[in-house]
Amino acid sequence: MSAKVIKTITDISEQGMSEPYRCIAEDDTEYYAKGLRSTRTSQINEWLCANMAAAIGLPIAQFSLLDVPEYLFEELSDQQKK
Length: 82
Fold this sequence. Notes:
The chain has 82 residues and is an alpha+beta fold. Helices cover 30% and strands 24% of the residues.
């Protein structure tokens, strides 16, 4: 599965310990993307769990690997980059 490119970062979620970013990807679907507030291990664990849940038929939200273009990251405020 190839990563979808994020085209817009709308805001930071008020829920969730890692304060994920709300984003719109190139497929015009809204995603919650874990960012710098989460560890790489946390991101890998979530990816593995989502794929296992999908494989056994559990009802889960649509998920995908996401790519943040450098220019989009640079447009974030300092507060959003933390």
